TrEMBL record:
A Pfam family recorded for this sequence: Polysacc_synt
Predominant location category: membrane
Source organism (scientific name): Methanosarcina barkeri str. Wiesmoor
Cellular component GO terms held in the UniProt record: plasma membrane
Protein name: Membrane protein involved in the export of O-antigen, teichoic acid lipoteichoic acids
Length: 439
């Protein structure tokens, strides 16, 4: 029971951090939306899509593989960190060059060389954060993970105020703020890991092979996921106009607010799942988390559905009114996708990232085909509908698979039990859980 409370408390801790991040990022987003307008916001969003997708592939699943192998304790922790450092250097170099080539190839007249370079250099910064936070999660150092996470929006917010609001650098200022914030966070993560380990490159062929083999599947799965999340913006940019991309990105941003709670618990679930001794018992804990989290997400979606028509124009301006309809179409898919956010992390912690790959690959194809069919006639609303269909099909599929391997029923997952209420009450009154320091 103590471990059960520990899982929940760590999840709440991460969610508290993400809530803080959400508030600061939300204010930053409002400032950007008003200062850049739909066209500028569209350029900013579209420009960062390509580096974002590249990061998901070039991360090579190292964060997940690191968590898994630190949990199994098969190899020396210092050797795992050394291999991680080596792969980080190689992937960063490849990432910058590839990003420059891909963005330049789009020949978008709104992009200049400075914007392309700045956007491309977010790749090594994000990869550094990705790789080294895996070590913290693997050692269940959730508090340290939180420290790293909340610094980015603060730095980003300050830089946006200075570069975009006061200096009027427009899209250049927004991209520069994003890059500098991530570089500062990457350096902080590097220093934090350096306090625990000696940062020496390790070239162990066995560890590289094992981590790369498992990590590649994680990376491919993450790549497919991110492609499914962002392919709509890529196609919308090509088949519609940049202003509609900006409006759509606002709708997506509001809809994805609902993912904050399941994403926060997903991070912790991944860490605990990788270290779990009894996977069947842990699945019962996951079902409990879903029974508590899913109703909250559902209630939040209802609030957004009815309130977005007032909130979005008030915060972002009347030129973003089309975002409201796009948001409403996205909401059903976003809600059911919250299930995936939790279940997928348990499967990943068990060393089964291939399940995500098998389930989401068809979903991506469906998303692409529907975007191509719907966007010419329906614009951002068509892109939202394509995403909702794709998210729903993938989430139902993974739920069916999860129920099959864990022997959980629909009532186990969705019907609230008296024990859930007792658990929440116990969580409120449970004493703090002491943690051991990494040595």
């Amino acid at each position: 029971m103590v471990k059960n409370y520990s899982l929940a408390k760590d999840g709440i801790s991460v969610f508290g951090t993400q809530l803080f991040i959400l508030i600061v990022s939300f204010i930053s987003g409002v400032i950007l939306a008003r200062e850049l307008g739909p066209s500028g916001k569209g350029i900013f969003s579209a420009l960062l899509v390509y580096p974002g997708i590249l990061i998901s592939l070039l991360s090579m699943g190292m964060r997940q593989a690191t968590v898994y192998y630190l949990g199994t304790k098969k190899y020396s922790e210092s050797d795992i960190v050394g291999v991680t450092l080596l792969l980080l250097i190689l992937s960063s170099a490849i990432g910058v060059l590839t990003s420059i080539v891909i963005i330049s190839y789009t020949k978008n007249p709104d992009y200049n060389q400075m914007l392309i370079l700045l956007a491309s250099f977010t790749v090594p910064a994000d990869l550094t954060i990705n790789y080294f936070t895996g070590i913290l999660i693997g050692k269940q150092r959730i508090n340290k993970f939180n420290q790293i996470k909340y610094l980015v929006p603060i730095i980003n917010f300050v830089l946006i105020i200075f570069l975009v609001f006061f200096e009027n650098l427009y899209v250049l200022g927004a991209i520069l703020a994003t890059l500098v914030a991530r570089i500062m966070l990457a350096l902080y993560a590097l220093l934090m890991i350096k306090r625990e380990y000696s940062l020496k490159i390790c070239c162990s062929p066995e560890i590289i092979k094992k981590m790369f083999s498992l990590g590649f599947i994680y990376a491919l799965s993450l790549f497919v996921l991110n492609l499914n999340y962002r392919v709509d913006i890529i196609i919308l940019e090509r088949l519609s106009n940049i202003a509609e991309v900006g409006q759509y990105s606002i709708g997506v941003g509001f809809a994805e607010l609902l993912w904050q709670l399941p994403t926060a618990f997903g991070v912790v679930i991944f860490s605990y799942s990788a270290n779990a001794k009894d996977s069947n018992k842990f699945s019962q804990d996951i079902a409990k988390m879903i029974r508590i989290i899913f109703p909250i997400v559902l209630f939040g979606s209802l609030f957004l559905y009815f309130a977005s028509g007032y909130i979005i124009p008030f915060l972002n301006g009347d030129e973003y009114i089309p975002s409201v309809k796009m948001l409403k179409i996205l909401l059903p898919g976003i809600v059911i996708m919250s299930l995936f956010k939790i279940i997928n992390m348990d499967l990943a912690g068990r060393g089964k990232p291939d399940i995500t790959l098998k389930i989401f690959s068809p979903a991506v194809l469906i998303n692409i085909v529907l975007n191509i069919i719907l966007i010419p006639d329906y614009g951002g609303c068509g892109a939202a509908l394509a995403s909702t269909v794709s998210y729903t099909l993938a989430s139902v599929s993974i739920l069916y698979y999860y129920m099959k391997i864990t022997q959980l029923s629909l009532s186990d997952i969705f019907i609230c039990k008296k024990s859930d209420i007792n658990f929440i009450l116990g969580l409120i009154h449970a004493p703090p859980i002491k943690r051991k320091r990494i040595t």
